[in-house]
Amino acid sequence: MEDEAFTDINGKAISLDCQSHSSFCREFTVSSSKVSIGKVMVYTCSVWLLSYAVFFFTENTAVLSSAIVITLVGMMLHIHFVKVDHESLLVIGSLGIQVSSNYASGRETTTFIEMSKIKDIVINEAIYMHQIIYYLCVLLKDPSEPNAVSSVVPLFQSSKPRLNCLVKVYKSCQEILSKC
Amino acid sequence: MVLKIFFPQCCNRADSGLLVGRWIAGHDSAVVLAVIHYPFIPGQVKQYVQQMQAQSGVELSVLGSWSLPKDGQEGMESFLRDLSTIFPQKCWLQISRQMGKTGFTCNILNRAQNGGAAQQEVTKKKDEEDVKSDGEAGGEEEDKEEEEEKVIFVHYEQRKVMLSQLHPIENGVPDPKTDPPSELRQMFQTVAHSQPLFFLDKYDDGPLKSTHWQSEGREASIIVELLKQASVPLCLLLSCLLSLWTWICNIRIFSLHPLRFLSSKLSTCVQLSYRTQHMRTLSSPKPAAGHTQFMRKANILVSFLVDVALGMLLISWLYRDNHITMLANTLVPAADHVAKELEELLQWLMGAPAGLKMNRALDQVLGRFFLYHIHLWISYIHLMSPFIEGILWYGGLSACLGLTFALSLLSDMVALLTFHIYCFYVYGARLYCMKIYGLSSLWRLFRGKKWNVLRQRVDSCSYDLDKLFIGTLLFTILLFLLPTTALYYLVFTLLRLVVVLFQGVLHLSVDFINSFPLFAVGLRICRSYRLAEGVKFRVLCDEPGTALHLLMELNPLKCSTVVQTYRTPTYSCYPKDSWAALVKKLFVGELIYPWRHKTTKAD
Amino acid sequence: MHCSGSFSHLHTGSLEVCGRKHNICMVSDFFYPNMGGVESHIYQLSQCLIEKGHKVVIVTHAYGRRKGVRYLTNGLKVYYLPLQVMYNQSTATTCFHSLPLLRCVFTRERITVVHAHSSFSAMAHDALFHAKTMGLNTVFTDHSLFGFADVSSVLTNKLLTVSLCDTNHIVCVSYTSKENTVLRAALNPEIVSVIPNAVDPTDFTPDPSQRQEDRITIVVISRLVYRKGIDLLGGIIPELCLKHPDLHFLIGGEGPKRLVLEEVREKYQLHDRVRLLGALEHKDVRGVLVQGHIFLNTSLTEAFCMAIVEGASCGLQVYDRVAGEEVLPLDRRLRRLRAHCGPVAGSIFAFVAVLDFLFLLLLQWLVPDQVMDVAVDATGPHGLWRQETSSKKETHSKSATSS
């Protein structure tokens, strides 16, 4: 069902995958672009060149080996903790909403929010770095006051899709929420 | 509305029979706990369910029927439907599944009244939908979509759900009026509380047979039981010893003022009282009341054991190869060396340190004063030197109580050995503080203001000429003497800070050993389902047209949250000021750690 | 998605459809929750413009935890940008650092007119400068009077000269203010118009029965800060009280200079004659005012003294005139800057303007206009605010800002 091409707030292409498991259960997956080989090459080469420059002056081979270790460890940490491959949102009517993000290394973090805690899903505006962006978020109920919002859970935090993509997800989420 | 049925994975291949479980009120969901097999006598089933309900405190009931016809068993359907008249329920589930054909039907019988006589059947039979089985689910169950009533099947692993603890922990009895616990929490509670139901063994010869989770390690559990039995007298013995110890501690002599003050300052004493308190928690013969308390006890026990083990390691190192004598022989010359270095530092300060020109008279007075102190200190060290080895030898024994004791003792010894630095710091700080206060009030006078004590604010005030003259004169004198004092203050504060830093590292490590929740972290690593942050769902069948079909997995708690939740609260003796407050205190010349409360009293 | 090329086209299209409706952006450092004349002026003006069918957004800096995007009555959208506050609620200015955020606001809201308020607000000057760089029309409203003698006035006046020489139109709140502004900023008086502030007469009806006839009551209502001349007030209170034994003071307002008044009161034993009321609610102001015979204002910089402004009644004619003006290309702008502001300051600011333009180009390369989402209009011709049934709902945001 991918007809439109979506981009994130920086203009990079992302893809939205809507899976409808049943009339009240849908899964939205936003996949961001993969780690580009060019970027990895640039970073690796710059670190190695730098270490070679240091080696040239100090003539200490430990510098070179440490540079290799640094690049390897840095890459591993990056794909394990920073680079998010895809984020998904599973909306199950009358049960809850599950938000999960899969890192490039395969690590997965998941949070499930029960329907009784959810007040609504809205599109909101925020100031992010030097931009003002739209984002989708789940409003949580305050247990003491039924009408108040206790906190906000932002969705698709690392892929940051643009408004047209958000609106699409928002509309089908509201369809399910209004039914149950 | 969507009906949610929590179905245990172990019952996927159970023989036909009755579903026993609980309706969760207000949420339209049912938790299936076990399947009671055919053949059975309905009266016995009723009796059994009531008995279980009394034992577990969960509102158990017969939810419906389950059929998995084997060869040659035909005509079950009608029989199972008739059963619904025997077990009056608001709603009767009829879940059936066929071997081989991966078929799975769910009919729901609603009845208008609970009476049972006038019952409406809204059952709709639908064609079975063949769905590919999901390998990981361990079964190939499908469910059917009803027209007006949709069904979600949530498959859960009974053992994990039973043993896990959902976080954040809710303590005490939840108030039913304010906020009923959420659906998942109720479901977890139901499974956890219905343990008596699971004691019925598959191979027992009883009137009823049922399928549910059952433990496989009977032998291990016997050992655990024996250990539990044995721990009671041990606890009693421990508590006797503890009461004796507390009695000794409470003797009059120890509560006299100087002793009590001293003991509150010595970190060994603090650690001792802290450990006593821990042992008291451990030795109470009653079983732990809730999850939190159980975890607390376990954490304390494990960290105590680890502490003692580390202490033993230390002892085995210390008393081998005469390490103690070596230490003692290096300690006295080191103290001498420090004193000599200090003396040189003072000599340097009394000249023109770093090319600064100080007030000569004040400089000399201060320098001589401090030099005399160092002289006193060196004689003290020399007096002590014959005993140091003995002290170390006996002090080393304290490590058998745990590494924390050895570290606390080390911290105390460092504090005693560097007492002269502390004295210097106090003198310097007092002098500096007085100057700063004087300067600030004279500066106010200079600007024609004064501090209004009554209203706690600065007022403007017109001074006489002679007052102004004297004030300005004093201000000038103080201002020009300030650099000399400030230099002494700076140097000794830096020295003091080095000592405090060292002691702080020791205290931090003691605190770390005392409070780190080793048991909880181990549990998180080895049995990650025991501490659950929540749940996560996976969709098992994703063909359009079939109803929803989820697998519920437990989401283990994050390691940082484990540490945060289960950290044993400790008495922490380091200052709680922020860094900015600390810097401000240093600048103004207020005394920092440790005699903090005493200075506030003096002011 | 509207790319920058089609952006102006779309705008003219919308103009044809709904007459001369503008997208107006009010910029000032001073806005609610800060209280004062400028703040209420901006608010009332915006409300009236919304009623006329224009789209209005307000840009100000973050106040404490209030940052991000908020909506006020009738869908008035307020951006609280996380810029560093330097002094007296005025942001620090470097001429450049606010450009990315302001550009984002101007682009996504499709702003056509930028209206800056108050010469004390550094953000307003920045916005004028950036708006000119981006080729938008600008209006400036001055609310204060200023001297010419001391160092701070000289510097502020120079800054004002620079930032106003680019501005299409200037509004002053009184004729005195106009003279003052024209002199300070060396402006052509023709582009300065005066729209006196108005007080809603229905809110402020006299009620002589409230006065106590056996005494003379002087009412002072202002924020107790240096700029409002509270030191002067503290000086005259004892003298006046000495001369007229039946004189009483009623002082409403709160601020750091309250201490001065308290001290005066204690020193001259005037507790029964000088009453300090503390902070007043808007609705209580009339109740205090009617108790007095004389209203005293000691402000050092006030151009038009008032408690409540209903300012927007005339706002529109100004905007219509402004929108017709052309936007200068960069080279002519530079020439004007140099010609107008003297050789030294002019050259410096011309250089700054070039840098600003280059910075804008860099930003446009980094984050192109096409990538920025166009904001959903709450007010204006395509405003969604009144359509309550609309599925698109944005609540008051509690936004996660990171910088």
From TrEMBL, chain A:
Q: Where is the Phosphatidylinositol N-acetylglucosaminyltransferase subunit H conserved domain?
A: 88-157
> Mind telling me which residue stretches traverse the membrane in this protein?
40-57, 63-82
Task: Establish whether keyword Iron is in the entry.
Answer: no
**Annotated GO biological process:** GPI anchor biosynthetic process
Keywords on this record? Membrane, Transmembrane, Transmembrane helix
Alphabetized InterPro entries for the sequence:
PIG-H, PIGH-H_dom
Task: State the GO CC annotations.
Answer: glycosylphosphatidylinositol-N-acetylglucosaminyltransferase (GPI-GnT) complex
Pathway assignment reads: Glycolipid biosynthesis; glycosylphosphatidylinositol-anchor biosynthesis
Keyword Calcium carried by entry = no
Q: Which Pfam families match?
A: PIG-H
Q: Which family does it belong to?
A: Belongs to the PIGH family.
What is the designated name of this protein?
A: Phosphatidylinositol glycan anchor biosynthesis, class H
UniProtKB/TrEMBL annotation, chain B:
**Keywords of the record:** Membrane, Transmembrane, Transmembrane helix
UniProt-listed GO biological process terms: GPI anchor biosynthetic process
Which terms in the GO cellular component ontology are assigned? endoplasmic reticulum; membrane
Region annotated Disordered sits at: 115-149
Quote the biased-composition stretches of kind Basic and acidic residues, using this chain's numbering: 122-135
Entry-linked InterPro entries: PigQ/GPI1
- Bias (Acidic residues) occurs at 137-149
The organism's place on the tree of life at top rank:
Eukaryota
Q: Does the keyword Transcription apply?
A: no
Q: Name the PANTHER family on file.
A: PHOSPHATIDYLINOSITOL N-ACETYLGLUCOSAMINYLTRANSFERASE SUBUNIT Q (PTHR21329:SF3), PHOSPHATIDYLINOSITOL N-ACETYLGLUCOSAMINYLTRANSFERASE SUBUNIT Q-RELATED (PTHR21329)
Can you name this protein?
Phosphatidylinositol glycan anchor biosynthesis, class Q
Automatic annotation (TrEMBL), chain C:
The protein's matches in InterPro entries, at most eight in alphabetical order, are given as: Glyco_trans_1, PIGA_GPI_anchor_biosynthesis
Which Pfam family is one of those matched by this entry?
Answer: Glycos_transf_1
Q: Identify the residues that the record assigns to the PIGA GPI anchor biosynthesis domain, covering every copy.
A: 61-150
Q: Name one GO biological process term.
A: GPI anchor biosynthetic process
The pathway it acts in is: Glycolipid biosynthesis; glycosylphosphatidylinositol-anchor biosynthesis
Going by the UniProt record, its keywords in alphabetical order are:
Glycosyltransferase, GPI-anchor biosynthesis, Transferase
Q: What class of enzyme is it?
A: transferase
Glycosyl transferase family domain segment(s): 207-317
Molecular function (GO) terms for this protein are:
phosphatidylinositol N-acetylglucosaminyltransferase activity
Q: Which GO terms describe its cellular component?
A: glycosylphosphatidylinositol-N-acetylglucosaminyltransferase (GPI-GnT) complex
Q: What is its EC number?
A: 2.4.1.198
Tell me the protein's name.
phosphatidylinositol N-acetylglucosaminyltransferase
